[in-house]
């Protein structure tokens, strides 16, 4: 499996998909549907961007599998699956907040989180003009600069989290926030899990935790963090809302001790 080739393709597709998302945003956002709850929306751009990514992957690697947030799963025959969130941070996108991203990962083996091996990843934030990428064993990068997670948090950790769309889960998630605040210097809620993970990789955040993510939310970002020297783990994997923790080693282990 050539991770370098997959990496180059992921970057190229993420860039093109990002440009399309940005162009559609400037033309105005049309809501296409709501999904799990009223707050969980999909725009026409989410669908169009995913279609572009699907077509580009199929043209370059017709026998690979695909798992996309909007169009579902297609098994492939090569052992490689592309795990794709066409617009991560759809609510930001709909509101005109520039923190949204295209997230693309090429994984090997099972498409079950925790059982795959991520080989290549690209997270593109077109409205911010930034692209983060990683290749298994080859490091994590942003526009030519190697990424590194933070290792020291003398003033406490700058943490980020997210909340699911189901209002019934908010109270429990706020209790989780309360439990981690003693080790935090402050808390962010950025609105795109893939970008939160890219920021941990880039040392812009010291750690990130969230319950109930889908595979496409974190497949690319988790590889960014690992290749930037950090640690990613999932707790409560038997529950409907497993907890994802990503950070430098020390903050990761402190978060796991609190949340485990
Ligand atoms: C959401 C974002 C958000 C996270 C939610 C995700 P979407 O993805 O990543 O930051 O808190 O859990 O569902 O719906 O914008 O693709
Ligand atoms: Ca998402």
Molecular structure report:
- Helix content is 35%, strand content 30%.
- The chain is an alpha+beta fold.
- The chain contains seven helices and 15 strands.
- The protein has two domains: 3-146, Fructose-1,6-Bisphosphatase, Chain A, domain 1 (2-Layer Sandwich), CATH 3.30.540; 157-259, D-Maltodextrin-Binding Protein, domain 2 (3-Layer(aba) Sandwich).
- The strands form three sheets. An eight-stranded mixed β-sheet has the order 4-3-5-6-7-8-9-10. A five-stranded mixed β-sheet has the order 12-11-13-15-14, sandwiched between helices.
- The protein is globular, with a radius of gyration of 17 Å.
- The N and C termini lie far apart (35 Å).
- Residues 85, 88, 193, 216-217 line the site of calcium ion.
**What is the average per-residue confidence, as pLDDT, rounded to a whole number?**
95
Radius of gyration: 17 Å
Distance between the termini: 35 Å
Helix content: 25-40%
Secondary-structure-derived class: alpha+beta
Strand % is: 25-35%
- Write down the CATH topology of the largest domain: Fructose-1,6-Bisphosphatase, Chain A, domain 1
CATH first level of the largest domain? Alpha Beta
Total number of domains:
2
Compressed to H and E, one letter per element, the order equals HEEHEEEHEEEEEEHEHEHEEH
Number of strands: 15
Q: Helix segment count?
A: 7
> Outline, from the CA principal axes?
globular
Oligomer: single chain
- The CATH superfamily label of the largest domain reads Fructose-1,6-Bisphosphatase, subunit A, domain 1
Bound molecules: D-MYO-inositol-1-phosphate, calcium ion
Instruction: Outline the low-pLDDT stretches.
Output: none
Question: What is the level-2 CATH architecture name of the largest domain?
Answer: 2-Layer Sandwich
The major beta sheet can be summarized as: 8 strands, mixed
Strand order of the largest sheet: 4-3-5-6-7-8-9-10
């Amino acid at each position: 499996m050539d991770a370098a080739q997959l990496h180059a393709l992921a970057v190229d597709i993420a860039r093109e998909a990002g440009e399309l998302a940005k162009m559609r945003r400037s033309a105005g956002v049309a809501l296409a549907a709501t999904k799990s709850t009223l707050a969980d929306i999909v725009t026409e751009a989410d669908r169009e961007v995913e279609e572009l990514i699907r077509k580009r992957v199929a043209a370059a690697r017709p026998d690979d599998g695909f798992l996309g947030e909007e169009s579902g799963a297609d098994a492939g025959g090569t052992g490689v699956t592309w795990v794709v969130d066409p617009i991560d941070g759809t609510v930001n996108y709909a509101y005109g907040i520039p923190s949204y991203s295209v997230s693309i990962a090429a994984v090997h083996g099972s498409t079950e989180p925790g059982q795959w091996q991520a080989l290549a990843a690209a997270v593109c934030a077109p409205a911010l003009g930034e692209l983060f990428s990683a290749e298994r064993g080859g490091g994590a990068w942003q526009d030519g600069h190697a990424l590194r997670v933070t290792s020291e948090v003398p003033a406490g950790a700058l943490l980020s989290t997210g909340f699911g769309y189901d209002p019934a889960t908010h109270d429990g998630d706020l209790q989780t926030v309360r439990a981690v605040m003693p080790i935090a210097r402050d808390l962010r809620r950025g609105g795109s899990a893939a970008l939160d993970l890219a920021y941990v990789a880039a040392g812009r955040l010291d750690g990130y935790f969230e319950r109930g993510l889908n595979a496409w939310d974190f497949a690319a970002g988790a590889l960014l963090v690992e290749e930037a020297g950090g640690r990613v783990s999932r707790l409560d994997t038997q529950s409907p809302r497993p907890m994802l923790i990503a950070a430098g080693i020390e903050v990761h282990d402190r978060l796991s001790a609190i949340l485990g």
